Amino acid sequence: xxxxxxxxxxxxxxxxxxxxxxxxxxxxxxxxxxxxxxxxxxxxxxxxxxxxxxxxxxxxxxxxxxxxxxxxxxxxxxxxxxxxxxxxxxxxxxxxxxxxx
Length: 101
Hints:
mainly alpha
């Protein structure tokens, strides 16, 4: 299975250049976080991840280091429009309400 995310996601999450203008070399490409874990564990690559990864994928062979000067991550709900139901719309309204409280 090839890449499942649009290219613009990577461009938003991972800059192409350092603040000093140096090009950032891109390492191995994977199609899921689960496939990235062994690459990180062997030291073949590093990768920015959201803070929740440290909670859900804690491992003694992977260090999660906060990036203090990165812009905050933004999350959003998505679903296939063909599968939209009143229950999905209700959940989305509740999530939107909670995010604005």
